[in-house]
Amino acid sequence: MRTMSPLLLCLLLWDLLDLVLAYLTVSIEPLPPVVVGDAVTLKCNFKTDGKMREIVWYRVTDGGTIKQKIFTFDAMFSTNFSHMENYRKREDLVYQSTVRLPEVRISDNGPYECHVGIYDRATREKVVLASGNIFLNVMAPPTSISVLAADTPAPFSRYQAQNFTLVCVVSGGKPAPLVYFKRDGEPIEATPLPEPPAGTGSWAPRNLLHRDLDDTKVPKSLAAEGEVGGGRPPATVDPPRGLAAERGPVTETIPETVVSREFPRWVHVAEPIYYFRHTHAPVSDGTVEARATLTWTLNPQIDNEALFSCEVKHPALSMPMQSEVTLVAPKGPKITMTPTRARVGDTVRILVQGFQNEVFPEPLFTWTRVGSRLLDGSTEHDGKELVLERVPAELNGSMYRCTAQNPLGSTDTHTRLIVFENPNIPRGTEDSNGSLTGHRSFRLVLALTLTVILELT
Fold it and tell me: pLDDT truncated to tens, each residue of the chain (457 aa)?
């Protein structure tokens, strides 16, 4: 009996294995990053010489711990092959399974897997499996951009230099965008900072020196008259005790205080040194919120009316996205008083409705009464509105000053309160707070007397 050579034996065993075992290869075509709203088609290519059992597509979440089935083809219960595209002749056994996402969302970002199973040639009870995977990268363009001033409202300082910070907030983007600043249309060369510069993290509002000692503010009325000590406010005149007679104007127009542009020597003329910091934080919807800060030592002489813009570049945007602000000191506050004809006992509201110009950043408002305290006994009141409740006759002719200031500058505006008689309130019946103590006491005594008389009868 002739013995079989080892080479021939190996070839026979290889042919037997080829008859018994089937082969299967699976691959998914790579995709470039896609933008939210695009239609995406995932393509799974597989080649086999066996009989199809199933095709399953999975969406993988939670770092691979959860697989969500998004498509299944089971050959045992379907004879429909419309989901597959045969690029070659059927005998080549090369197929492609596709899954189409009509409008991708941020939540569709992540890995996907294509699993293919075929029957083994030896027995239909055994299935040969193979899979391929792909990571779908979904980008989203930023949806909003805004420029804010940090730590506002903040006061104006003539006697000490202060840092100023612009904050650019960009929301809705994925991945994080590239953010940069421009001044008057020119890119700003800034020194990057890993951490916020010392002392600029938060502004503690500093009180200015007393306004009456501020020699950089000259009232127009005194400057025109040429009085000595023009830096001081006009002498306070005691308000008239009597009530105003009926006349046309209800409030007196006081000239606006002019802010001098002669600043102390600490103001530098050289170009400022800018410091830049960029951070981003993930949001629950899968996007990123980016924040960029620009900090420098403010110079009101050259920074007032300067145009700053924040621009954003992102791979999902065809052109840069931007937001602009102009640094402007407050000027010409517009003050209204309601009611226009205040009478004894009324509640008077004095409100700053706006300015002659667009002011940025938001100003700080402070109300004072010239020569005396406010009606509630305080020396000053913060806010756009000053409320005087139940004004008494003694407030007739009183003058109120509103100081509006931001880091670029400060301005004062005065208004005088005219209080008219109230025919429903006799003279002298109200106290210093405007309450009708005498009239109310009389009514209380009268009511008690009537009660006693009724009980006796």
Answer: 455 566 655 555 545 445 445 678 899 999 999 999 999 999 999 888 778 889 999 999 887 788 999 988 887 665 444 344 443 333 446 788 999 999 999 999 999 999 999 887 766 678 888 999 999 999 999 999 999 999 889 999 888 888 999 999 999 999 999 999 999 999 999 999 875 444 444 333 333 333 333 344 444 433 344 444 444 444 444 444 334 444 444 445 555 554 544 455 555 556 789 999 999 999 999 999 999 999 999 999 899 999 999 999 999 999 999 999 999 999 989 999 999 999 999 999 999 998 988 999 999 999 999 999 999 999 999 999 999 999 999 999 999 999 999 999 999 999 999 999 988 877 655 554 544 444 455 555 455 555 545 555 4
3-state SS track over the chain: CCCCCHHHHHHHHHHHHHHHCCCEEEEECCCCCEECCCCEEEEEEEEECCEEEEEEEEEEEHHHCEEEEEEEEECCCCCCCCCECCCCCHHHCEEEEEEEECCCCHHHCEEEEEEEEEECCCCCCCEEEEEEEEEECEEECCCEEEEEECCCCCCCCCCCCCEEEEEEEEEEEECCCEEEEEECCEECCCEECCCCCCCCCCCCCCCCCCHHHCCCEEEHHHHHHCCCCCCCCCCCCCCCCCCECCCCCCCEECCCEEECCCCCCCCCCCCCCCEEEEEEEECCCCCEEEEEEEEEECCHHHHCCCEEEEEEECCCCCCCEEEEEECECCCCCEEEEECCCEECCCCEEEEEEECCCCCECCCEEEEEECCECCCCCCCCEECCEEEECCCCHHHCCCEEEEEEEECCEEEEEEEECCEECCCCCCCCCCCCCCCCHHHHHHHHHHHHHHHHHHHHC
- Joined together, the tokens standing for residue 225 give 């008259």
pTM of the model: 0.69
